[in-house]
Every structure is written in structure tokens, then in C-alpha cells.
């Protein structure tokens, strides 16, 4: 490969000779790559935002009891506990303390929160609303929902007999902190409860339906003693949730382990089709870049017929000439990809500075995406060079010698 | 005392696919080491075709070319290219320096093709060659920034950089004014004498042909006569 040095020299001299042509095609590649980089950053940024909004303050994995086996009610030694928990048809998790401790050993899990929930009805004067009663320890609930930080009235405390209600529900029932109201749990005596605070979790449905109460208190009210209905988990890397859920489902027979990906399948499908349309656009940009390089090199090859003829006469091998053109493609691709990346970064910066007035916009530039875009561009450039390279390298030097 | 360096045996060349037309009709030729041979003939006589076949550029339809014991057309394309590079030197009518390189770089190109980088012995040799062809002062000029005669002299230097056994020249003075032409021819003759390099030169110019060692005249693809110039005169 000692001849490679000369091939490289020849390729760069050819490119330098047609400086204007070279600069134009470099600009063309740079614009293409710039668009690809910018588009990736935009789509990735939007998706990261959306995913963060979707799963940032919600469990990534929920573990529930799978089998609908009737539980003996400790309060009624010989009777059966009437199943009332409707959420995913789950049944109370009995061994939750042991289970929670096991789950907390998993280094990928950042929060493990046992929750006891059930349906209830709140009455305040003539108004009423059906709610989801969520029994949680406040300090644990904060790990996922940051409830304490989201109290808009009253105080984030869960004293016995007090509850926290969502802002929508508070509006609906005209509640203020300090109000008392009646809570009815199916099959139980109505109890009187005190509104301790009002939260706004930023999700309308939760603000309308959720009522948070101390877990032990809920257990007492539901007659479930020392039990929970589900264990909610957050993980370090949200995209690992599905895999982790699968692993833990195998380790926990009899439990249903569900990741946010399963619950949000339609969101993920939407994101995937958004990505796909972005890839499609990028593919066509890449195709345009490839065609551009190919045509420039085809012209270049015609312009260099004399040089190639003479080089072949004085003994250069066909493959060397092919490589000269492929090197030209690679040089153009690399140069264009580098310039394009800078252009894309510049575009992104301008967009953040001037384009996002009035709304929050984040761009996400993944090093992996950059690497892929650059690699693809260089590969496409090399590929684009193949055809002109082949044709010109097969040329018969005699044609040139005879005709000048 | 004469040692045969090149043998052409029964060389036939046909062009064209459906109805081939025969350009060479079976040529036998032996060329001795150190000879300066002129290949003459009207246009269409086949002299350039013969030169290209001898120069390993064009496969004959039939026949053999043997240079220093190597049967040229038994070699593959790559081996043939390497053979041209190592054993042959070429000087063409249209100069054909690479305009992207300097005069000095052009002289080195046949060496660089297979070595990539020129070490100091080759650089020294290239400088000597430039000195010899009178272009030392043009060393770092762009190849297209010098006159036609200078370009052809640079081409002579380039043909010699790999110390070829045989130099093939196709109308080397055809595109030059008579003074430059004389210059280039004198240079070739001098190298032939000093380095004992064999030369085969295609030319239209009978005065020039008369100053070589041997004239081979082709007509209609056959050798018409093969004589020393004194007899023709």
C-alpha cells in the first residue's frame, strides 16, 4: 500500500485544482448534513421532553398481584374478604415488606414505593365526587410524585384523619384546607376527614381523581390491615424499564410487573412514527448528498481523462485510479460532514436563541446520532464515488494518447 | 555484439467488432539493446499501433512481444502496468504532464506510483535529470506554466526516472517548433548514447529519421523496408 500515499496526493490535488467545484459540493454536503443534525437534535429533544413529561413524575414499573385468589379477612376469621379493588383487577400484596426490601436492593431502582389504593366517594354538602384513594407515606410518595413541592394550598402533611386532594377536585367540591368532608368507602361506614392541603401534580386526571392519605390509615379504612395493592418503582434509565420489568417478572412468579412502555404503548408508537418520518427525510437528504457527490465526481472524472490516461500509460494500476476517486469521495464526505455538523450545531444554537420565543424548546444532540450521521455521510460519499471511479479506471489509455 | 532486447513475432492487430479491419498484418521485428530506431510510414500505416503493442499498452490480436525474455501479453493487466512502469519510458506527442503537479513532481511520478515517497537517492536523480534536460530553474514551476518545448523536455526526464531499458516516443517533436524539436531530439540522442537506453521513435519527419541508427518503414500494416538511414539517403 505504499502507492496509497501517492493516490491520496493525487486525489487532493484533483480536488484542489477544481477549487470552486469542490467548495460548492462541500457546501452542498454541509447543508445536507446540517439539516440531518439539526432535525435529529430537534426530534430527539422533543421526544426526550415528551418522555420526561410522561414518565418524569410517574412510576416506571408497577408491581401488582396477578392471581385473583380470595383473601381471608383477618377481621372475619372464617369469611372471605369482598374484593373491591378494581385497578387492573389486582389483589392485595401481602408480603410487601419483604418484597419492598428485595426490590430496594436492585441498583437500577431509584424509588420503591408501596401503595394501597381503592375507590371512595367524597361528599361535601350537596356536592360529591368519586375518587381514587391513594394510601402512601408522604416521604415515599415524594420520591416519585414530589407531592410536597406541589402543594398549592395548605400544608404537605398527612396527619391522622387528614388528606391531600387534587386541585381540580378541590374546585369541583369547592374545598379549602381545613374543610371537613365525608368519605364513603363501599361496604364501610362513612368517615369524616379533614382537607390538609391541595396539590397540583400537573396532570388533569390526577388532579381530579386523586386523594392522598397516610397508607396505614387507608389500610385501616379498607380493612386491609398490613397490605398494599401495588408497588411503584422509578428506575435510573427510563428506557431500561421494560427490560427490568421482564427480569423481575421472572423473579417474582405470581406478580404482574408492568413497565411504562406497556402502559404507554400508543405514545411510544407515535414517537416511533415521528422518528421514522424524520429518518425518511434524512434518508432523502442523504440520497441527495450522494447523488451530488456522484455527479461532481463523474464530471471530475471526465475532466481528468488526460491525466488518468497518462498515468495508466506510465504504469498506474486500475485499482489505484479507482481508489483516487474513492478517496476524493471520502475526503468530500468527511469535510462536508464536519462542516455540516458545525452548521447543524450553529443552526440549533440560533434556534434556541431566537426561534423558541414563548415556548420551551429543548434540542438534544446525542453523540451517537452525530457519529451515525457522520459515518453514514462518509459511507454514502465513498459509495457515490464508486460508479465514476469504476468507469474512469477502466478507460483505455490509448484513446487519450492517440487523440491528445 | 548486438544483443536482442525486444522481439515482435507475427504481430497482428484487428479493430472493430462486427467486421474487423486489420491494421497490422503480421509483423516480425527484432530490436537490439542500445539501438535508436525510427518507425516511419504514412498515417494509417500502423506505426502507432505497433508502438502501442510494443509498449505494452495494446494487446495484439495475434503474435507475441518479448522484452528481455518476458512475454508481455502473457502477463495480467496489473503485471503489465507494473512492467510499463519499471521497464519502459514513454514520451508522447502531447507532452501530458500533470498540471496539478510541479515540474519536479511530474518527473518523480513514475517512481511515486509504486513507492509513495521519494527518498533522497531518487530526489537526487530527478534533480540530475532536470539539470540534464535544462530545466533545473523550472523545478518548482507548475507543469502548465512552462513552454511546450520545456514540457516535452520534462516529459523526457519523467520517462527516464525509473531507469527504463526501453523508451518509446510517439511523435515527440510533432507538436513543437523546429528549434524546440531539435532540442528534444538532441536530448534523446544524447541519453541514448550516454546511458545506452534503447529508443523507438515514431515520426513523420524524415530528416529526423535520417539521424537515427535504423529506420523501419511500415505500409498498410507490413514492414516495407528496414534499413540504416545512410542507404535511404
Can you describe what's shown?
The complex is a heterodimer of chains A (404) and B (233). Chain A is of the alpha+beta class and 404 residues long. Chain A contains 14 helices and 10 strands. In chain A, 55% of the residues lie in helices and 17% in strands. In chain A, strands 2-3-8-5-7-6 form a 6-stranded mixed barrel, surrounded by 4 helices. The longest helix of chain A has 39 residues. Chain A is elongated and about 110 Å long. About 5% of the residues of chain A have low confidence. Chain B is an alpha/beta fold and 233 residues long. Chain B contains 8 helices and 10 strands. Chain B has a 6-stranded mixed β-sheet with strand order 6-7-8-3-9-10, sandwiched between helices. Chain B is globular, with a radius of gyration of 18 Å. Chain B starts with a strand and ends with a helix. The relative contact order of chain B is 0.19. The mean pLDDT of chain B is 90.
In short:
With about 400 residues, chain A is α+β, with helices and mostly antiparallel strands. Chain A has 14 helices and 10 strands.
Structural descriptors:
heterodimer; A: 404 residues; alpha+beta; 2 domains; six-stranded mixed beta barrel; B: 233 residues; alpha/beta; six-stranded mixed β-sheet; four-stranded antiparallel β-sheet; 8 helices; 10 strands
Layout of SSEs?
The complex is a heterodimer of chains A (404) and B (233).
Chain A: H1 4-17, H2 19-55, E1 61-65, H3 96-104, E2 109-124, E3 127-135, H4 138-145, E4 151-154, E5 162-166, H5 167-173, E6 180-184, E7 191-199, H6 204-209, E8 210-213, H7 215-222, E9 230-235, H8 241-251, E10 255-259, H9 260-263, H10 265-303, H11 305-313, H12 318-355, H13 367-393, H14 397-403
Helix pairs in contact in A: 1-12, 2-10, 2-12, 2-13, 10-12, 10-13, 11-14, 12-13
Chain B: E1 4-15, E2 21-32, E3 36-40, H1 47-54, E4 62-67, E5 70-71, H2 77-87, E6 88-91, H3 103-115, H4 120-132, H5 148-160, E7 166-170, H6 178-195, E8 198-202, H7 206-209, E9 214-219, E10 222-227, H8 229-232
Parallel strand pairs in B: 3-8, 3-9, 6-7, 7-8
Antiparallel strand pairs in B: 1-2, 1-4, 4-5, 9-10
